[in-house]
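BUG: 3D viewer hangs when loading the predicted structure for this chain

Environment: internal workstation, default settings.
Expected: structure renders.
Actual: progress bar stalls at 90%.

Input used:
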Amino acid sequence: MESLGIIGIGRFGKMLGKIFADDFIVKGYDANPVSKDIGIKMTDLESVLKERTIILAVPIRDFKDLVMKISPQLKKPCTVIDVCSVKVFPVNVMKDNLPKSIDIIGTHPLFGPDSYHRSEHLKIMMCDVQEKEDSFLFWSSYFVSKGFQVIEMSPEEHDKLAARTQGITHFIGRSLMN
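Structure tokens produced before the viewer hung:
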């Protein structure tokens, strides 16, 4: 069985670990390690960075620092996938700072830990940022095989749509509070 790494084992990282656990050995690293048995083999950062696929599931405020820290340690072949809810910023950070020899995929799972088990029609947005090893096809096919609807779009398209929908959501939320 192949393995993959997840950096950031908060609520979202744990959920990702559960999604991948049937098909991969999931190795995880978190700056604040969790001790619960969550189906993720917790290890050190160096071990996670040896994986062929590394998923970055950290808060956006920590994203650039993490990318800068791991960049010199990445070995090819390697695919780095982010799961940030915005796309232009993390994609630009990865393109500007990660080695040109690795694959980069931007994703935004359009669900979270609270909605994951309640829906059968889950969607994930994906954008092929930098590819050398056909990893985008592999991962988009993998998500489809797990029952996800894959939506391909550019980071700019994603953020424009997200701004509209989140703006409406926040407007309604504030209106209900008043």
